[in-house]
Amino acid sequence: MRSLIGGALLLSSLLSCLPWAAAQETAPTPAPAPQTVTVTSTRDPVDKSYRKMIRGMERFERQHALAPQATLRFRLLPRLPSVHMRGITLKVVGDRITVPVPVTPQDNSFVLPRNEQALREDAAVIANRKTTSMTWRAQVITPGLPPDTRRLGDLRLECLVGVEAGLVSNSSPLFGWISNALNSPEQVCNSPDGNFLFFTERPVFSVTLRAGERTEILPFRMLYAGGEQTRDMLDYCDCQVLLDRTYYAPIWDRSWPDDTLVSFEYMDEPAPAPAAEAQP
Amino acid sequence: MKRLEPFILVAALLAGCATQAPQPGTVVAADRFTRQVVPGRTTRAELVAAFGQTKSVVFDSGYETWLYSANAAGGRSEEVVVLLDREGIVRKLRRRPPYPTDPQR
């Protein structure tokens, strides 16, 4: 009981520090003449942080050895069924600066320009869509790979950059903030429980890893966000409308080298010949 | 000693749980399954009648993936996955053998 009272007193004193509490105390004082403030844009707490995204780009440079030939882009993907993914525009918005960011219409990818003033102003990266209607990812692609394949080192770097840049939002804004604060890129990307989701270009039926003579088909539990998502849980997964394109890659498993090829069999294509099946 | 018996029983059950996790999908005989299930022809109703309900994932597109398990050598298990289209016809079937790197059941 004593600790409860102590807690209540502490809470009370903390609340008194809040701006609205202070405003109540000073209310009787005559207000000074109103000042005019020009608001050029409003920031949503879930807008992407420009500083964080630049930190993601710096992470890409530091760990480029994972994908030496690859380049970095960012990509916008649908998160809500209602979102229209054509005609998306993007800008970096600070207190006094706005920098337009061209978005490639074919795949909604973009390169983020570096701007020192926007960094100083702790700018936000804002799209002409509600931020929570889309999911954002880093895109690291080594040129010249066979069709319908990805390279594991590219995926490792996508995870590190994506987490560093604060792109993933698999929970409500409050819990997402706490989760981001507690999980470093290494904790997420180097752990089998990191749960970093990747997306294929089309609905996927099977994913196979190949490194030299070693070949393995990913287990079912590594597709479709583990296959355990209920309708209610999907609201908190950025795979919400991309569930059939979702997979986990074993980026944490160093027994698979960076050059491992990850290949996809899509739902809408004929099955490969039996000889191509992976053997244990 | 008699008072200890329930605890010993519970401990034994828990130990069993720790070493024998249930298989993720309904267990089938893989050869019989691949003989009877024909992509492009087998329907959902035929699948359920022959092999029973199992773990599945339903997508917004109306497609579904169903996961069955089959016993393999060495006490391991194989995955058998089918894809059903929105009309309830099996479109694809694949098998995933156990690999040495798989976690033990």
The radius of gyration over CA of chain A amounts to 23 Å
Shape call of chain A: globular
DSSP helix fraction of chain B: 25-40%
In CATH, the architecture of chain B is: 2-Layer Sandwich
Biggest pleated-sheet summary of chain A: 4 strands, antiparallel
Secondary-structure element sequence of chain A?
HHEHEEEEHEEEHHHEEEHEE
Share of residues in strands of chain B: 25-35%
Main sheet record of chain B: 5 strands, mixed
Give the strand line-up of the largest sheet of chain A. 1-6-3-4
Q: How many domains in all of chain B?
A: 1
β-sheet strand percentage of chain A: 15-25%
Task: Note poorly predicted spans of chain A.
Answer: 1-28
Count of distinct structural domains of chain A: 1
Using CB atoms under 8 Å apart, which protein chain pair has the greatest interface?
A-B, 23 and 26 residues
Q: State the distance separating the first and last CA atoms of chain A.
A: 62 Å
pLDDT < 50 runs, ≥5 residues of chain B:
6-20
Number of helices of chain A: 8
Structural Rg of chain B: 18 Å
The end-to-end span of chain B amounts to: 33 Å
Defining traits:
heterodimer; A: 280 residues; alpha+beta; 4-stranded antiparallel beta sheet; globular; B: alpha+beta; Beta-lactamase Inhibitory Protein, Chain:B, domain 1; 29% helix
Quick synopsis:
The complex is a heterodimer of chains A (280) and B (105). Chain A has helices spanning 2-16, 19-26, 50-62, 116-120, 152-164, 173-182, 185-189, 231-234, and strands at residues 48-49, 71-78, 90-93, 98-101, 109-110, 124-127, 134-141, 149-151, 198-199, 204-211, 214-217, 246-247, 261-266. With 280 residues, chain A is α+β, with helices and mostly antiparallel strands.
